[in-house]
Every structure is written in C-alpha cells, then in structure tokens.
Amino acid sequence: MKKKLITTAVCMACILSGCKGVDVNTDIDTDIDVKFTEGDAALPTDTTSEVSENDADVDAKATETADADTDQELYIETDEDTLESVIHDGDKEIPVEIATGVYGPYIKKYDVDGDGEDEYVIAECEGTGTGMSIYGLCIVEIDNGSTVLTTYDGQYFTDILYDRIETSYDKASHEVTVTAKNEKGNESFSVKLEREEDLYEVYFGDIIRIRLEDDGIYLSAPTGYIFEEGNAPDYEQAVDVSGPITVDKDSNITVGDLSLGEDDGDKTP
Hints:
single chain, mainly beta, 46% strand
C-alpha cells in the first residue's frame, strides 16, 4: 500500500465535501507528521461538530470515555465553530484533524501494534444519512514529541470487501450466495430474498463500521441489494461481513479472515 508522509507546523482546518478522506490538523507549537492513504477523497459537506459516545449521552462539543486501564478521562473535543478536534487524555491535549460526523468519533487507547507503547485508535464518522453510515480508522502515535496520524477511510475498506467477497444470484430461486475468500479457506452464506423484484447488484460502501473492542479492532459491513426496479441499496436480509484488523509497527493494517452471518441491523460501529 502506497503512503505519503507529510510534516507541518501550521494549524489548519480543512472541511471539504464528500464522504471519504483525511485532513491534517496541527498545533502551532507541535510538529505533526501525518501519513494518509493515497487517493483519499474529501470529507462530507454535512460534517458537524457534534460527536457521540458508544454507550452514553452526547455532549455537542465532546465525546468522553473512561480509559479502563488508567482511570483517566479519554475523549475527543471538537470546536463547533472551527471543527478542530483535540484528544484529551488526562492532562494531555493532542490536536488531530478527523472527520466528525454526527455519530462519532469513538476513541480507545491501547497497544495495537505490539511495540510496548499505547496508541490512540479512533473510529471517525465520515458520513451518515438515510441508509448510510460510513466510518474510517485513525491511528495516532506520539513519536519523540511529534504526533503521527495514519488514516484509512471508508473507501479503503470498501475496496477490500469488493476484492475479497464474491456473490452469485440464482434468479429462479431468488437466492443470493455470498462467499468470502480467506487464507484459511472460503466461507459461504446464502439467503433467499423476500422482495419480489429481480436482483441487479450486491453492493458495498454505504455502511462501513469500525468497532473498537477491548480485544482489538474490527471491520463490519452488510451486503446491500440493488434491485432492477430501484437504485438505492436495500439492507433487508443483509449478510454481515466482518473481520479483525491488525496493525503493524508502521501503522500498516491487515484485515484478517472474513466471517459471514445474518446482519442484526445495528448501524453503530
């Protein structure tokens, strides 16, 4: 995967249109190195400063979570005027520029790459709407006083799904079969569609979830069905495609073997 490395000492807030991408936010007193995946698109035009926490009420300016390992307050605060975001970790303040859609960002702190140092891991909300909920993954490391931000947008994960998932449709039985191509062997899951129209396409990209669990990071996305009589994905009887995300010491990521099952309709990461 090709990446770029950028160093800057100027504080910027870039709010662009679209549903995919990464911006760079720096503090004027801190050198910040930012790595981002090439080809990222812009942030959604409906980006707001409102953020939320996984299991608590939302404050319009900040998401607060308790770090179970250190008992310190860990949350992200976003200025509602400039949309600049700051990680608060106890008495530490770390500026980062991330997507701040209505249902996010979520943050955890743990050693995700096995280097003995904790990283900040963020599921950033890139866009939400009717039938749409897209998240990206940000990994924040502190290296000799500099902040290194690596971001993988929703399109990055969508491309992985299209590369590793095969689908087939039996028009006579109205049955869809989804197959995950895994190193340990392919896994398939079939569902008979109840909608009467013939299927035109199995679609990924409008719902991308990044789950931050205590035991690791997980990608999850449902199959969307585009029928011949319409052009918007239908998620009834969706198949959930999910897999673990591992991170190496250079913040490169790998999505492990994908598993398939019935989607429970939960649109939160």
